[in-house]
Amino acid sequence: MIVYSDTQTPARRPFQRELNRVERDILRMGALVETSCRLSHQALCDRNLSAAKAIPSLDKKIDRYYRQIEADCVLLMTLQAPVARDSRQLGAFMQLVRDLERIGDYAKDLAEISIKLFPYPEHNCMSRIAMMSQQAQAMLAMSLEALINLDAEVGLQMKEKDTAVDTAYDTLYQTLARQRDYQGVLEPILLLVLAIRHLERMADHATNIGRRVAYIVTGHRH
Amino acid sequence: MSFVTFILGLAVGMSFFLWLRFTVERQLRQLLASLDSSIPDDSMSLWSQLRRGIAVDRYEREDLERSVEYWQQILLDAPFGYLQVDEDNQLCWCNDKARSLLKIDRWNSGDSCLLLKLVRSYELDRAIELTRERQQPKQRDWTFHPVNANVEKPKLQDSLALRSHTFPLADGYVGVFLENRQPITDLARSRDRWLSDLTHELRTPLTSVRLVVEALQSRVEPSVKKWVDRLLEENDRLIKLVGDWLELSQLETNPSDRLNCKDLELESLVRSVWQTLEPLAQPQQINLICSIPTPCRIEADKSKLYRVFLNLLDNSLRHSPPKAAIEVEVLVPEGNRLEINIIDAGSGFSELDLPHLFERFYRGDPSRTREANSTVNGSGLGLAIVQQIVTAHGGSVVARNHPETGGAWVQIKLPIKCIHS
């Protein structure tokens, strides 16, 4: 019946199997980073402090995956000496987990920012920042999707999608920086500028992931 | 001469034939023995027995196939989601309900594809992995957030509260049942909101009723006075209930934001709670045994923790026999957690009540939870408040019966450092 499918090839090559395992760990790490980003969004935009407090423990897990995947990749490189696409894939994986890990770090920074921002009243830019945060999350989802399907085209499309986030950053920066007659403490404004900067960097790293996927598939640097 | 040669040849031929026949027959018998469905029947020839055996086998196989189809159909039409992964966490089968719950749209049955590629949920993956490691079934509640990879319209999609039951199968396979808990979650939320709105509305009129009754107390005739006293008492009970409920719902909506954590000393806190309860304890000659390593300092919300001890000690007091003792014991095992045990010598909790003790308005055995002369508490919210406060501090609380005293044993574990930064 259903149950034990016989479509698998009887003996998969050990290298392929190891590679699949690394890929699985990367996807797990990706799922964790996505959760982290979602929580940072809730912390920043919905003022949910318990979400902010949940992030550091997630970040520790992400870091652990990062170190483990990197070590696995190095081990596979040296022991199995892969060629062509396999070697490109391993190399790109090593770079890509670094990007993922950075996105996780930014999510953690956003959580810290939102804790500091909590005592201040909500700024009227918040809805636009929420939009930008959702765009950054969608970019991350898109890059992971490109990785899953090894889709070079999606990976390369990300560069142009990134401009949406960049534009949002520019306009928000202008609005925040060009305020006149601002009264009161400057901290909330500074924190918001930092927050949009982090979001913009998140989207950049997601774009990098897309480029690395394209490199795995085509073998050309874009 | 030629006759002798003929006979000899015939004998050799016959012996070959017989030997061959003997071997064939032996092989046939072996073959028959391996067909466990065949019934040895000496009246039939071996060949017919074999034919019959094969026919029976085929029939049985068809029967099995039919029953497999039948079970598969049952799983397909089941009102809950079901999916199954192999030893590498690749999805090998799922029903339509699971597809719609987890939004699996790019998968054809028969393909094997990493589950994480189809459903990017760390919780589900983790539950499957743990089940395989421990070879034990596992139940887990989690929220599924469908991803949206559309940068132009990055609206977050609605999340779904799910309950997964994972269980190990042979060869490292794992089966997962999925239950949609979203309607129940929505309902519980709307019920709580409804109730807290209601209590909010009740508070003001109740307070005015109390003022009026107080004013009446001194003005009515002595014969009516006891009724007015009764009215006041019952009104106070209602006010307390409403207050408890409001506190509980506030604690629940914002668990850690409502805490005002400060450094405090545990023993003096317990002693001050006991002082409040002294009027209840003295007539029964109940003693408090405090074994707390001094000084035991903890960072917590003082008034909230006071409430925890008040509710628990009050409960213990009301169920202790006269001249008994109530023990409060604090242990500081290594690590950053504190263990508080509150043990009484009463009748203990009944086994039936144990799983529901911390539910709101749950009252177990009426003889245990509410006594005729009790005026304090008894709202059915005491333990629920205890649990909410302890959880807000990042701790946990468990209730059971003490093996030695047979009475109630409530165990609280608290982090020494308050979670709230």
Automatic annotation (TrEMBL), chain B:
This protein's UniProt keywords: Kinase, Membrane, Phosphoprotein, Transferase, Transmembrane, Transmembrane helix, Two-component regulatory system
Annotated InterPro entries: BphY/WalK/GraS-like, HATPase_C_sf, HATPase_dom, His_kinase_dom, HisK_dim/P_dom, HisK_dim/P_sf, Sig_transdc_His_kin-like_C
Presence of keyword Membrane: yes
Span of domain Histidine kinase: 197-418
The protein's name in its UniProt record: histidine kinase
Biological processes, Gene Ontology terms: cellular response to phosphate starvation
Transmembrane residue ranges: 6-24
Any GO MF annotation of the entry: phosphorelay sensor kinase activity
PANTHER family: PHOSPHATE REGULON SENSOR PROTEIN PHOR (PTHR45453:SF1)
Source superkingdom: Bacteria
GO annotations of cellular component type: plasma membrane
Catalytic activity, reaction form: ATP + protein L-histidine = ADP + protein N-phospho-L-histidine
EC nos: 2.7.13.3
PROSITE patterns: HIS_KIN
